[in-house]
Amino acid sequence: MNYLKLIIAIVLIASSARVQAQKKEELKDKYVLVIHGGAGTISKSKLTPALEYEYTCALEEALHRGQYVLDTGGLAITAVEVAVKYLEDSPLFNAGKGAVFSHEGVNEMDACIMNGKDLTSGAVAGVRNLKNPIEGARLVKDSSKHVFLYGDDAQEFCLSKGASYADSSYFFTEFRWNQYLKAREKGTIILDHDTTDVNYQYKTLEELEKFGTVGAVALDRHGNVAAATSTGGLTNKEFGRIGDSPIVGAGTYASNRSCAVSCTGKGEFFIRGTVARDIAARMEFADISLTESGERTMKRLKKLGGSGGFISVDKDGNYIMMFNTKGMYRGVVTNEKNAVVKIY
Amino acid sequence: MNYLKLIIAIVLIASSARVQAQKKEELKDKYVLVIHGGAGTISKSKLTPALEYEYTCALEEALHRGQYVLDTGGLAITAVEVAVKYLEDSPLFNAGKGAVFSHEGVNEMDACIMNGKDLTSGAVAGVRNLKNPIEGARLVKDSSKHVFLYGDDAQEFCLSKGASYADSSYFFTEFRWNQYLKAREKGTIILDHDTTDVNYQYKTLEELEKFGTVGAVALDRHGNVAAATSTGGLTNKEFGRIGDSPIVGAGTYASNRSCAVSCTGKGEFFIRGTVARDIAARMEFADISLTESGERTMKRLKKLGGSGGFISVDKDGNYIMMFNTKGMYRGVVTNEKNAVVKIY
């Protein structure tokens, strides 16, 4: 009888342990991916319908690529890298391929990635010839004993670890931008547009230049959050300027204790306001919701004089997309909701 | 009668306004200055009495210089700059003059300064020829529209605004270090020390190299807090590596809402842990004391695997000096308490 009891007990314990182990490996249904392509004085009057369509398509495709990763049980850190990489490859945003607007054809790009699971992160700043700065940031995170590398040395490190090199001719130039716009307008709306009239195009270009940081935050089916941000910086910035995007706690932050954040806007205010960390810290230390934390952080950013926006997703799948500018290129997709893209 | 009442009322209002204005300008008695010269495996057996004496003198003098500023009603931001500048000028710490240990005689120095009153801040990283990197950080804060500048461009900007240039020969070299040690030991303890025995000296040098970040935090008589940190970085670091010292929220932070913080230790952990901001954020959002906030932040830093320490003073004049290493060069002076310096 006692033996029987023992055997039953062992079987029960073993099967309960097995169920628990299975539970641990079981993927949750819930996943969320939120992206942004920069915030600024974006208004209907300044974007042609064709350009608006281009932006919508690019943001949707970035969402779909990241969604595929999450849907199939991939990690948040991979989803945000994939989404940001796609936006970097687009000439529409001031990151990666679209980063260069200066006459010299050079620009300094920054990027940062952070994993909420273990707070590991990687960042590069002032790189000029990495095809995808976010890939560089990921390599720093995974393969360097450091978190933050700058300039030619950062680039050299990333290339030695397998990052893709891109000649400066790969990056976007004003000339090529005008070519592109002309082609688009010919093909879609203004068939007989006067090709010598580049004024309008230049104005649009200026708008884009200012507000083109890209970013992504995600919650994966394992319950991890992650964040990634990439930027070509500001025009007419002093060289050697580092903005908020590559700085953990300023433009990028992620912790499974609270949420993942990616910011865009006037970087100096986001550094001084430690905006990305504050959104998470308010949740952790004041025990308030993501929405309330976002609102309080936005209020304080405004008080500092800062303009811009941020996206965030918390560990429970709540998400926010907040900005105090006219518009922010943004989009979201979840396990329950098809991709939605908004601009204004 | 009515006229008389009116006149009395005016006089009363005017005098009360005058008293209030005087009150506003009235300086409080309380001021605090805390400094550090790095944390690490500093133990009695590794420091000669002569070297220990040198460290004590240097830290005391830095405290006295900063104290003079505070005592005479100067600003916290000036006091921390003055104190850090003095430590930079000493060859004993891995910042400013003492920053260079490499055979090439070059090193990359980082510094950051932040004013708790308005959250303005300035930082430089990867500079090689600024005599006082903290002066560079202050110039970025006061004269640049940016917060964070890197490398040759940062240096150029600071020099154009009046920062002092220093040739690489100014900075500390191994050769000169050995000369210095020999001179000291001859003069103080080991008169007949074997001058060919450089092994011991080299070992000491290695210790110093690792843990030589300097920093200061202060509360001034106007009620403002400020923080400053300066470092020569790590030996054998990858070039282009940015540590926590120049990053707002990582190695340096100040806000009149809570406290001012300067950190020292393995920078990567302080970046990932947003240590400086977290000490302040816990006070602001969780409404706990500086000591409790410091303890919780230290606990989390340990959990991440980070070693080092930090100093902090809050808006009410409470201060902490915490570290999870064997020792930290540190000191404090207040309006009530003479300068006290400790190492172990």
Textual characterization of the structure:
2 copies of one chain form a homodimer. In chain A, helix 2 (49-71) runs antiparallel to helix 3, helix 3 packs antiparallel against helix 4 (133-143) and helix 4 crosses helix 5. The first copy, chain A, is built from 10 helices and 12 strands. Chain A has helices at 2-25, 49-71, 76-89, 133-143, 151-160, 174-188, 199-210, 267-272, 275-286, 290-304, and strands at 32-40, 109-115, 121-127, 148-150, 214-219, 225-231, 252-254, 259-265, 308-314, 319-323, 327-334, 340-342. In chain A, strands 4-3-2-6-5-1-11-12 form an 8-stranded mixed β-sheet. A 4-stranded antiparallel β-sheet of chain A has the order 7-8-9-10. Chain A is 41% helix and 21% strand. In chain A, a hairpin with a 5-residue loop joins strand 11 and strand 12. The longest helix of chain A has 24 residues, at 2-25. Chain A has 344 residues and is an alpha+beta fold. Chain A has one domain (32-342): (Glycosyl)asparaginase (Glutamine Phosphoribosylpyrophosphate, subunit 1, domain 1), CATH 3.60.20.30. The A-B interface holds A 119-121, 125-126, 144-154, 157, 237-243, 247-250, 253, 267-268, 271-274, 277-278, 281-282, 284-286, 304 and B 119-121, 125-126, 144-154, 157, 237-243, 247-250, 253, 267-268, 271-274, 277-278, 281-282, 284-286, 304.
